[in-house]
Amino acid sequence: MNQTQTRPPLVRRAGEPDADELARMLSGLTDLSRYFRFQTAIGTPPRQALLLRMLCPTGAAFVATRDETIVGHAMWAWAPGESTAELAAVIAEDDQRRGLGIRMLSIAAADAIEAGATHFLFVVSAANDRSLRMLRRRWPNATVERDGALLTFVTPARLPSHPKESLDAVHEQVEHLNRDLRRMDDALPAL
What we know:
By secondary structure, this protein is α+β, with helices and mostly antiparallel strands. The chain has helices at residues 3-6, 19-27, 31-38, 48-55, 100-114, 129-138, 167-187, and strands at 10-13, 60-66, 69-79, 84-91, 119-125, 143-147, 150-156.
């Protein structure tokens, strides 16, 4: 493995200029990975309307890059229900199972909490064992409802890597993640 592959990806806010690179990443996913993320076929390359919804949601979107190549995407968007944010992530095949998904979900969760989210919503295929294990481990108090092949989890908004914590601890973690994001944004050249 070369040094480029071992360096952790840079996570930053996403926007419309990321559409082509995000389309490339999504096109490189297996059919199963795309189905687990979208619960439907998305086409190759993905439609521009889908890419724009992913990059400019009603909440915020983030991409993970390595040498200008997108290797992950996470987002949150306002969902029905009082102060409920839906969280979702998708990671390039070669970067799966290395902690990038939970790292990106943590950043999206922190941003959603800062925006006022009090609950998180996840919609997951009942066949997506890895995501189901992660949700049950990271958000053990989530309630779940089944709708055919989909499971809908709702949980109080908290960061995934920590068990129950006080509101002060959540705010401290949100501030820490936001400082990291600001440093990353400062390091990016203006477009």
